[in-house]
Amino acid sequence: MTQTWKATPRSVVAGVLLGTMVLAGPLTAPSHAAPSQPFAPSATTPTAEDGRSILDLIPAQTRDRMLAQAPLVDAANIVRTAVDAGTPRGYAGIGLVDDHVTLWWKGALPGDVAAAVATARHTAPVEVVGATYSRTELKKAAAKIAPVVDADPKDAAHAVRLRTDGSGIEVAVDPKIGARQPKLPATGVSTRTVVRERMVERSRYNDSAPYDGGIGIGLTTYACTAGFGVRNYTTNVGYLLTAEHCGPIGQPWHVGWNTNTNTGTLIGYGVASNDDHDTMLVSTSSPGSHIYVGGQNDEVRAQVTGWTQVIPGQLLCQSGYTSAGEIGGPVCNLRVDFHYDDIEDLVEATQLDGDESARGGDSGGPVYAVNANGTVLAAGTTTRSAGPGFGFQDFATARDDYGDIRPATALASTCRVSYVVTDSWGTGFNASVTVYNDGPAVSGWSLGWTFPGSQSVQGHWNGVFQQTGANVTVTNESHNASIPTNGAVSFGFTANGAPATPAPFTLNGTTCN
Q1: Residue 453's CB: how many other CB atoms inside 10 A?
Q2: Pairing state of beta strands 456-461 and 482-483?
Q3: Are 200 and 360 in contact (CB under 8 A)?
């Protein structure tokens, strides 16, 4: 859909922490752009000619923390699926806290959510903490405060935030303005002001089809970054996903623009946008299934294998064109702090090392989670920053905007499997398996795989197991037969043998990413 109302950064936000810059602007093309080479789909980690992958570009401590979150994200999504399936009730928020998942809830936990928590605890520790207010109560109170905050763009207040822990509301004020703070109405909900800088909008070089995320794009000179190649699952039409503020609908987008001849390679035209959410689709018949993750002049790319919901506490990376030129790799250690809960629906994060989270020209660039094998999951596209403060639009919202779009992947599929070895010893291991459904709701499921060696299942939970030789089939129990669209289901097992990740996985006969 396309909306024309112009959103401002003065907004109602849902979350725990933060502050904001709009990342657009003409870029200077490097004098020696690396030639683009066709990249064959591979089940192995994509690397540059020197053997580097995304895993080599992230500082080891940050990388290890990101990869250790995989079971936490899976567990949070199991709980989130149950929460989304029912009415809001006492739900306040969910987040990743240190080495566990925390669910904040007001009142007694309903049976369906309690069952989901019990299931998720097989994958990762899940803590349930009482909340002072539910998300519904916070939204109602914020709706009274937001018009006052938005009334005068010259005053110091610029955002209203719902705390993920359900403890109350925060009103962000910009310390640089020195303007008055508005008098806020009484709501019966605990409200406090926090000092946060306003974020402003932010806006690679010469690629060829298929067009991957992370490339520098513009109407003429480079102004923004492509986020991800995507396809509409229903129509199979291809696009590049980027930021709406980069340019108008109907205009041509190019790579490899030559300022001497005023010519470049046409990618396609802006065909749809959402002004409120700052997303845009650029038409292309060749959306790529990788993103550039290295510098501006190298071929280090990572394969995209799907997309992920983003959860407060989750650590992500961004690979904008300008940042790639300045630091030679991705900006990582971006901790998700909260989701906006207004017309913009943005997500805010913080670069935990205090570094610049994004730069002019990064707008629209890919924001992503990193998998242990060096592949990545689409999390969103860059919109704003202010120092370490970072604002992006999550991929789930882009799906809501444009229908059933999905990242272009080497394997077009409606399902994704997260397989995590949670423990191992000399003679065996434990594994947690989470199945994500991108297609129509599933009622009754069967997941199959083949072990690469002599591994044998000894114990299991949340599924009916059958193993013949190396082949394993798991079908649903009566209580977890349904997997809603955008939902997830999990199970696990104990096995003898060396830890190993089998492939491929098939869900009801469909091969999954």
Answers
A1: 10
A2: unpaired
A3: no
> pLDDT averaged over the chain?
85
Q: What are phi and psi of 136, to 5 degrees?
A: -60, -45
Look up the domain containing 421 and give its range.
Answer: 415-512
The residues facing 418 across adjacent strands are 434
The answer to whether position 56 is within a domain reads no
Contacts 24+ apart (CB under 8 A), 78-81: 78/116, 78/119, 78/120, 78/123, 78/434, 78/488, 78/489, 78/490, 79/103, 79/113, 79/116, 79/117, 79/120, 79/126, 80/309, 80/311, 81/116, 81/484, 81/487, 81/488, 81/489
The bridge status of strand 510-512 relative to strand 505-507 is antiparallel
pLDDT tens by residue, 359-414: 988 999 999 999 999 999 999 999 999 899 999 999 999 999 998 899 999 988 99
d(CA 36, CA 152) in angstroms, rounded, equals 49
198 in any annotated domain: no
| Helix 70-85 × helix 60-68 angle, to 10° | 40
Domain identity same for 391 and 431: no
* Distance in angstroms (rounded) separating the CA atoms of residues 47 and 56: 10
Residue 277 CA to residue 284 CA, distance in Å, equals 21
pTM of the model: 0.85
CA distance 335 to 351: 6
Q: What share of the chain is helix, strand, coil (3-state, %, to 5)?
A: 15, 40, 45
Q: Which residues are paired to 192 by β-bridges?
A: 170
- CA distances from residue 337 to 94, 95, 304, 489 in whole angstroms, order as listed: 11, 9, 24, 25
How far from 175 is each of 65, 156, 193, 347, 474, CA to CA, in Å? 32, 7, 11, 21, 56
Q: What is the pLDDT of residues 161-175, one digit of tens each?
A: 899 999 999 888 887
Q: Which two tokens stand for residue 372?
A: 């242990």
How many structural domains compose the chain? 2
